From TrEMBL:
SUPFAM superfamilies registered for this protein in UniProt: GntR ligand-binding domain-like
Domain of life: Bacteria
Molecular functions (GO terms): DNA binding
Descriptive protein name: Uncharacterized protein
Length: 57
């Protein structure tokens, strides 16, 4: 079950990466989550909010 959903997720990412806009959004989201992980916990919620905003729009 987990493997199937994993494959679906990767296929979706591959499809999205074909579209430059989605690829840019995905890169921004990944970069944001990485920088949020590196920053201290005080700024973590702020970055999570901006990530959610990026993913919605």
């Amino acid at each position: 079950m987990f493997i199937e959903s994993d494959i679906d997720f990767h296929l979706t990412l591959a499809e999205m990466s074909q579209n430059p806009l989605y690829a840019l959004m995905l890169r921004g989201a990944l970069g944001g989550s990485i920088s949020a992980g590196l920053l201290n916990q005080n700024n973590h919620d702020e970055h999570k909010r901006s990530l959610i905003f990026i993913l919605i729009f």
